[in-house]
Amino acid sequence: MPSQKEAKISNLKKALNKALVIDEKKIADKIKVIGFLCKKCAQCCRAEFGDNTVILFPLEIRSICEKTGLSRDDFVIPTPSDDRDPEGNIHTFEWVLKKNGDCIFLKNDLCEIYECRPYICMTYPFYLLDGKLKVSECMGIGGKISNEESMKLAALLKHRYITDIRESIALLERFNGFIPGGSGNVCVHDSEGEHWLVTDLD
Ligand code: SF4
Fold this sequence. Notes:
The protein has six helices and twelve strands. By secondary structure, it is α+β, with helices and mostly antiparallel strands.
């Protein structure tokens, strides 16, 4: 009888196999029918237009560090969580970009890290859920998009989806439960292991 963890990993591996054979052209065709042209309104980066939370993979955090010279704690925080170990330390599973209401990288309606912005920003307003194309609210929906751009977007969406599943598998393989003992009061479990830090999540 597989453990709960083994069963989850096995399901994720099945999802990965399906994700690897997603037909980008079909996704691109759907994007073309929906239509999209970024209006550079920056609403997706701002607080007043809804949830502007940006979740990052560890590899994206590293890329931003390399390209900007910033360190991780300059621009990400752990997501809030109710999971605690016996000593009361918080355990969480994701990193998100810091905000001052708006994303901290938004300056004069422009993204300061445009060249290395996270996948979620590069692919907004589209995402894949169970391999199917979904669309969030966006002023750019319905705009004219070229074949080339729709293919580029479809490839990015597929890559983001595959990366997400691979990260979840790696996280689960490394995860050993909510065990106290690190130096800090918050532990982030991600695909690269445990990261302990001292921070106020309120
Ligand atoms: S990283 Fe850039 S594109 Fe993404 S939310 Fe922040 S300002 Fe917007």
